[in-house]
Amino acid sequence: xxxxxxxxxxxxxxxxxxxxxxxxxxxxxxxxxxxxxxxxxxxxxxxxxxxxxxxxxxxxxxxxxxxxxxxxxxxxxxxxx
Length: 81
Prior knowledge:
It is a single chain. The protein is of the alpha+beta class. It has one domain (7-79): Nuclear Transport Factor 2, Chain: A. It has one helix and four strands; from the N terminus they run αββββ. A four-stranded antiparallel beta sheet has the order 1-2-3-4, covered by helices on one side. The radius of gyration is 12 Å and the shape is elongated. It starts with 6 loop residues before the first helix and ends with a strand.
């Protein structure tokens, strides 16, 4: 039986990946998960992110798939600002 990971752990994994893709510090990335599904081996996650070191620098949306160990399989981000 697989143990589900809490949203905070999934958010932490996504913050690191998004920060790396954008060349930003992980401390300036804020992730909001709006949809989450788990099919037994893969998490499907959708949501929004903000890059805000001191002021709002960028906003966007993401669509990701993570394996059961929270390793990112796919990550698509779209900037909205």
